[in-house]
Amino acid sequence: MDLAAHDQLFERLWSGEAAMEEWSAAVAGGFARSIGDDVIAIHTGYLFGNATAIRTAAGLVLIDTGSRETASQTLAILRDWDDAPVHTVIYTHGHIDHTWGARLLDAEADARGVARPHIIAHRNVLRRFARYDATAELNSLVMGRQFNQPGYTFPGAHRRPDQIYDDALGLAIGGRRLELTHGRGETDDATFVWLPDRRLLISGDFVIWVFPNAGNPRKVQRYAPDWAAALRRMQALEPAVLVPGHGPVIMGAPRVGQVLDDGAAVLESLCEQTLALMNAGRSLNDILHAVAAPREFLAKPYLLAKYDDPEFVVRHIWHLYAGWFDGNPAHLKPAPAGALAGEIAALAGGTARLARRAELLAETGQTRLAAHLIELAAAASPEDTAVQATRAAIYARCMAAETSLIGRAIFATYQREAAARASPSPAGVDGGASGPISRLR
Fold first, then answer.
1. Which end of the chain has fewer surrounding CB within 10 Å, N or C?
2. What is the DSSP letter of 34?
3. Cis bond leading into 424, ω under 30°?
4. Across the 441 residues of the chain, what is the mean pLDDT of every consecutive 10-residue run?
5. What is the 3 state secondary structure string of 130-184?
């Protein structure tokens, strides 16, 4: 794909005529987006973090390095553009799709007999890598579920930074000025990079071409209010070009300003709504069903709720300000799930009736209620294969109703688990008339 074709595709993305999947397929294998003669953004697909390369008199500066899956492509694109040694690497944060390629850069430097890149990051990247080492098996489980890759192995041997900073850091490298600023958003270790002479902003994952990933259910605390504040700081710089953490480069001050303004505004709205209800003493469940992101933002092509869900963000806002207790006293010291489920099943007239009611709710689109009831049925009779088959059918419906990738992946995990426990498993997990509930009526 040449630059003209890329820019035509971008215009279709901006107008909403094209989906991000089309752009991702077009840049798969590696694509360099030129930003003047001395800067390129390197793309290898939407799911993999972008990298930005800058020529200086001292060597190359590389902001982020690519994922385990695509770092070799990132390096190949870089070397097609310039063969100079990589002098400095800046991590915008510690997620592996932005940091893993540093290992290849070290290996390349060793092979060429030159100094390894000097890596700079926020202090909390060190804490993140320590946590990754302590929870490697958990991370493998979580990532495998999030991306529907059972058996996924989370990488180790994370390349630590050589230099850390706290709030802000100015760099002068080979005649170029770079300004690093820390903020909290998707992570607590995030950095955005500003090149004042070019009015170029490299945002990291503060901008990702979907709704802000500030509420992932299986990840540590995220920071919606700080994310909005960081976007406002970026907006005040009046950048002319924005390289996001994922997705295509945005050119032109009006469009860049619009993206930053809209991203901040939607997060501010969720925070204001949530905090108002928290201050009024409402429970988390009440708040989840009362707060909504304004529809005009969710219609923007760069704020589609395709990965994270605004409802999940509300949960993280609650946890940031109020901890884990959700305001329901029964959840403070809960009974064992199986004991509660057994009582509910007895009141319902048996597990089969409870499961049947769950199916009827799912058939009428009430998948949230259906999930509650089928989990009670499964907890009350964990070895009942008919209940498990029904459970698989209900989670298939939950997947179909879910818009976010993260939500669908979590439902898919439990759909597969239930289907594996059902017998016979091939037939009847689609919830049709000849499906599992026919055996429970």
1. C
2. E
3. yes
4. 92 96 94 96 94 98 95 97 98 97 97 98 98 94 86 92 98 98 98 97 98 94 98 98 98 98 98 98 98 97 96 98 96 96 96 97 97 97 96 97 93 94 57 34 31
5. HHHHHCHHHHHHHHHHHCCCCCCCCCCCCCCCCEEECCEEEEEECCEEEEEEEEC
pLDDT confidence of residue 428? 41
The pTM of the full predicted model, rounded to 2 decimals, is 0.92
Compute φ and ψ for 173, nearest 5 degrees: -125, 115
Q: Round to whole Å and give the CA distance between 69 and 116.
A: 22
Cα–Cα distance between 285 and 139 in angstroms, integer?
A: 28
Residue among 438, 47, 420, 441 at smallest CA distance from 246: 47
| Token pair for 313 | 């963000």
Which numeric CATH code is attached to 335-439? Answer: 1.25.40.880
Output the pLDDT for position 147. 84
Give the DSSP letter string of 372-394.
HHHHHHHHHSTT-HHHHHHHHHH
Q: How many CA atoms lie within 13 A of 302 on its CB side?
A: 28
Side chain identity at 67, as an amino acid letter? S
Between strands 39-43 and 31-34, the pairing is: antiparallel
Counts for the chain of helices (H) and strands (E), in that order: 17, 13
Q: How many residues does the chain have?
A: 441
CB distance 197 to 177 below 8 Å: yes
Domain residue ranges of the chain, discontinuous segments joined by +? 3-250, 335-439
Tell me the pairing of strands 59-63 and 176-183. unpaired
Q: Residue 437 has what DSSP assignment?
A: G
Helix/strand/coil percent split, the chain, to 5 = 50, 15, 40
Give 267-329 as a 3 state SS string. Answer: HHHHHHHHHHHHHCCCCHHHHHCCCCCCHHHHCCCCCCCCCCCHHHHHHHHHHHHHCCCCCCH
CATH code given to domain 3-250: 3.60.15.30
Q: Give pLDDT, residue 424.
A: 56
